[in-house]
Write a structure and sequence with these properties.
Number of strands of chain A: 5
Oligomer: heterodimer
Order of helices and strands of chain A: HHEHEHEHEHEHH
Number of strands of chain B: 5
CATH architecture of one domain in chain A: 3-Layer(aba) Sandwich
Largest interface: A-B, 52 and 51 residues
Largest sheet of chain B: 5 strands, parallel
CATH topology of one domain in chain A: Oxidized Rhodanese, domain 1
Distance between the termini of chain B: 167 Å
Strand order of the largest sheet of chain A: 1-5-4-2-3
Strand order of the largest sheet of chain B: 1-5-4-2-3
Distance between the termini of chain A: 173 Å
Helix content of chain A: 40-55%
CATH topology of one domain in chain B: Oxidized Rhodanese, domain 1
Helix content of chain B: 40-55%
CATH superfamily of one domain in chain B: Rhodanese-like domain
Strand content of chain A: 5-15%
Structural class of chain B: alpha/beta
Strand content of chain B: 5-15%
CATH class of one domain in chain B: Alpha Beta
Number of helices of chain A: 8
CATH superfamily of one domain in chain A: Rhodanese-like domain
Structural class of chain A: alpha/beta
């Protein structure tokens, strides 16, 4: 009987410890502020699908027709935004993306299923913003190819003869192989001019001078 | 007394079984979104084409170039010594050893810099370190290193120094053979004296 008593006491202590550890665990369990909405492989699939890339022409059409369901977001700093921006766009600098009021705004847009189009001066500038929003789970985010530079026509090179639209920045601009072959061997050798020797041909005297006077 | 014993034992069993149903916590190696976001503020992730060229020429052993374009592009032309990991294969376990190392500076590059940056973001999110992006990609490489543009005559000395370096680098990457100008063999000039035809015969 005494034996069971000791065992029961021991067991009750064990239960106390167990419950205490569980409680501490739950209390210290911190919920992260932000969580990824998509895994890396899902994100990679979205990148490769290229579905989220909007051409400048599409954007112009949307702005011109005032198509509902789109919102343009300028990720540059306020000074650049003031200099010129897409009509009806909102300025949210990239540094402020995770501020409370902005995440609330993004959530609201996601609920209303409004497509967000992020843009910077060029596509590279907006790329990280687009990737961050995408990975956070905002599936309604698109990116403007060519950025504001192309939209406004400032970076358009009218002398370019390439048939690929210039806002496809990932296309090779030149034929790399051809350039390397044409330049192989170092410097370009200048042709040396060979001067022909000018040999003056003397006229033969037709007649021997015959005597003097 | 026995009843209490049974009750405690049952409680422990229930609590222990309850642990099985706790939500599974996924991979904690991933960089938190707010940290990744903060990493993107500064531009230290970019290296210039000049820097990459200099490090290739100096045969820097800590430089590791990764071409994230497709295999076709890679077969056509790539930087010397670069490995090819197409963006779509980046997450495949084959390349894990390349990405998890800590001693080399891994520089991603593509034709532009979008794919390279996407690779950079995914690699950083997975918690790997020491990644860089070659600013401007191969398009910029050809504009600056292979075919450098001569600066205006009013440009600063620094720009001329850079131009000199790029010219040298261009020769290094396009073949590197030094072409000597054709040798000029100077012909020995021999002066031949005219033989006097007649011996001066007497004076007056």
């Amino acid at each position: 009987m005494k034996d069971t008593n000791i065992r029961t006491n021991r067991l009750s202590i064990a239960v106390l410890f167990f419950v205490a550890i569980l409680l501490i665990g739950f209390i210290t369990l911190s919920k992260p502020d932000f969580e990824y909405g998509f895994t890396t492989s899902e994100t990679l699939d979205q990148i490769l699908s290229m579905e989220d890339e909007m051409t400048p022409d599409e954007a112009k059409e949307i702005v011109f027709d005032e198509t509902p369901g789109y919102k343009f977001i300028d990720i540059r700093n306020p000074y650049e935004y003031v200099k010129g921006n897409i009509e009806g766009s909102v300025n949210i600098p990239f540094q402020n993306f995770l501020a409370d009021e902005n995440t609330e705004f993004f959530d609201e847009m996601l609920e209303d299923s409004i497509t967000l189009v992020v843009y910077g001066w060029d596509q590279t500038e907006a790329n990280s913003s687009w990737m961050i929003l995408k990975q956070l789970g905002y599936s309604n985010v698109k990116i403007l190819m060519g950025g504001y530079g192309f939209y406004s026509g400032e970076t358009f090179d009218m002398y370019s003869e390439s048939e690929i639209p210039q806002y496809f920045v990932e296309e090779p601009k030149y034929n790399f192989l051809e350039i390397m072959e044409s330049m192989a061997g170092g410097a370009i050798i200048e042709e040396t001019k060979v001067y022909e020797k000018v040999v003056p041909v003397r006229k033969k005297k037709k007649s021997v001078v015959e005597g003097g006077c | 007394m026995n009843l209490r014993y049974i009750f405690f034992a049952a409680l422990l069993v229930v609590l222990g079984a309850g642990l099985f149903f706790l939500p599974e916590k996924t991979n904690t190696n991933e960089m938190a979104p707010e940290k990744l976001h903060a990493e993107l503020f500064d531009q230290t992730r970019y290296v210039s084409t000049d820097e990459v060229a200099e490090r290739i020429i100096n045969q820097d052993p800590s430089l590791f170039l990764i071409d994230v374009r497709t295999a076709d592009y890679y077969a056509e032309y790539s930087l010397p010594g670069a490995a090819n990991i197409p963006l779509e294969d980046l997450l495949s376990p084959n390349w894990e050893d390349y990405l998890t190392q800590e001693y080399m500076d891994v520089v991603f590059f593509s034709n532009g810099d979008i794919y390279a940056e996407q690779a950079w973001m995914l690699a950083n999110r997975m918690g790997y370190k020491n990644f860089y992006i070659m600013k401007g990609g191969l398009n910029c490489w050809f504009e600056t290193i292979i075919k450098p543009v001569k600066p205006e005559s009013t440009a600063s000395n620094n720009e001329f120094d850079l131009y000199k370096f790029r010219n040298g680098a261009s020769q290094y990457f396009t073949g590197g053979e030094l072409i000597l100008s054709e040798e000029i063999v100077a012909e020995a000039i021999t002066v031949t004296r005219k033989k006097k035809k007649t011996v001066a015969s007497g004076g007056c």
